[in-house]
Write a structure and sequence with these properties.
With 161 residues, the chain is of the alpha+beta class. Helix content is 55%, strand content 16%.
């Protein structure tokens, strides 16, 4: 339940930013925005995995780009369900969904609670320390992903530099 509540708060913040940043979206009130974020959270949690399974061949052929169309379609359907939310066209719904995805990623990065992903930044213009991943570059962003093994062993560390 806490995870869905966190997704709802993230979607509300992202939706507010999309309304101010994206062209072609009109919303009547904050109440309409919260209801739209609630419906979006429920659809993304329960229906989107099923939709992605049924459209898997299209996603494979388009190398995952069909997911943007699916997200735009979900936004467009939400605008038809809620009377205070509207897009000027389906293309604007796809564009808003793309902007929403990017904003939602960064909001989740800052506010989401994920112990499995860790971002490290090493500034090259300062004196290098012994634990930096690469000494020949000036700035390095290191991403660590921790996964639990299925047989109950300790967590495995995967590092991309």
């Amino acid at each position: 339940m806490g995870n869905i509540l966190l997704k709802l708060i993230t979607n509300i913040i992202s939706f507010i930013l999309v309304v101010y940043l994206a062209p072609g979206i009109k919303i009547d009130s904050l109440k309409t925005l919260i209801i739209a974020a609630l419906i979006l959270t429920l659809i993304n949690t329960f229906l989107k995995p099923i939709i992605l399974i049924f459209t898997l061949p299209f996603n494979i052929i388009s190398l995952g780009l069909f997911t943007f169309i699916i997200n735009g379609f979900i936004f467009y359907i939400i605008s038809k369900i809620i009377s205070g939310l509207s897009f000027t066209s389906f293309g604007n719904a796809v564009w808003c969904a793309l902007i929403f995805s990017v904003i939602s990623f960064f909001v989740n990065l800052f506010f989401g609670h994920n112990d499995n992903v860790k971002f490290n930044y090493y500034a090259g213009n300062k004196s290098w320390q012994r634990d930096t991943p690469c000494k020949k570059y000036e700035d390095v962003i290191d991403v660590e992903v921790k996964e639990e093994k299925s047989n109950g062993d300790e967590k495995k560390r995967i590092s991309n530099g």
